[in-house]
């Protein structure tokens, strides 16, 4: 069964004014669609056809670079759309809040470290909040790599990610990646992050 581009769980303009509708429409309808189509083309007729995206990513070092780039792009954007929502909780709660406090000292410390990872990732990539057992760590990856890949420096289960490719923010923020990352916190869907942390 081919990988499918899921519909966004909200309208293109739902994350305004933090993320603009035109960026969302191009990002989902063009970029994510292209990763999905290219992933399908890359696995078609190979032993990977029929595997889940998680299975493919877990052994990505053995697969062609087109599978790495487009498989990562397919997975990462699925996560990205779901960990954002309009009007969600303004901060983590419950077990997730406890884990953040245990791992980073406070929510504010987490935020500073996550922001730093996002703005210091050179070129295109992602910053991640990664589950490792009961604790959390922050990492960043280049291009469309992610912590599920066997070749990632920091491995684990991604529970939050922010896309820092220029296509994610350039129309509204131009070169001001820090402003975009700052705005991102206003649309984080902490309920979904908690669900992923619970596993
Ligand atoms: Mn992107």
**Averaged pLDDT, please?**
97
Rg over C-alpha atoms, rounded to the nearest angstrom:
16 Å
Helix count? 8
Into which percentage range does the β-strand content fall?
5-15%
Low-confidence stretches: none
> Sheet bearing the most strands, described?
3 strands, antiparallel
**What overall form do the CA principal axes indicate?**
globular
How many angstroms does the end-to-end distance come to? 25 Å
Each distinct ligand = manganese (III) ion
Residues in helices, as a percent range: 40-55%
Order of helices and strands: HHHHHEEEHHH
Strand pairing plus helix content: what structural class? mainly alpha
- Count of distinct strands: 3
Strand order of the largest sheet: 2-1-3
Task: Give an overview in words.
- The chain is mainly alpha-helical and 199 residues long.
- Helix content is 47%, strand content 12%.
- It is built from 8 helices and 3 strands.
- A 3-stranded antiparallel beta sheet has the order 2-1-3.
- A hairpin with a 2-residue loop joins strand 1 and strand 2.
- Helix 1 packs antiparallel against helix 3.
- The longest helix has 23 residues.
- The protein starts with 20 loop residues before the first helix and ends with a helix.
Outline the fold blueprint.
Blueprint: H1 21-43, H2 53-58, H3 65-82, H4 94-104, H5 107-120, E1 125-132, E2 135-142, E3 157-163, H6 170-173, H7 177-184, H8 190-198
Antiparallel strand pairs: 1-2, 1-3
Helix pairs in contact: 1-3
The protein binds manganese (III) ion.
The site of manganese (III) ion has 7 residues, from helix 1.
């Amino acid at each position: 069964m081919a990988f499918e581009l899921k519909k966004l769980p909200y309208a293109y303009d739902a994350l305004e004014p933090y993320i603009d509708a035109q960026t969302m429409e191009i990002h989902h309808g063009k970029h994510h669609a292209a990763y999905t189509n290219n992933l399908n083309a890359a696995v078609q007729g190979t032993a990977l056809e029929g595997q889940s995206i998680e299975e493919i990513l877990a052994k990505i070092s053995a697969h062609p670079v087109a599978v790495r780039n487009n498989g990562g792009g397919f997975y990462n954007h699925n996560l990205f759309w779901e960990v954002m929502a309009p009007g969600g909780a303004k901060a983590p709660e419950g077990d997730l809040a406890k884990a953040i406090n245990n791992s980073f000292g406070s929510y504010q410390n987490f935020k500073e470290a996550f922001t730093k990872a996002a703005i210091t990732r050179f070129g295109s990539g992602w910053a991640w909040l990664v589950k490792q057992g009961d604790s959390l760590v922050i990492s960043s990856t280049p291009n469309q790599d992610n912590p599920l890949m066997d070749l990632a420096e920091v491995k684990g289960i991604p529970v939050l990610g922010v896309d820092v490719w220029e296509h994610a923010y350039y129309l509204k923020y131009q070169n001001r990646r820090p402003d975009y990352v700052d705005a991102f916190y206003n649309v984080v869907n902490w309920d979904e992050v908690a669900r992923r942390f619970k596993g």
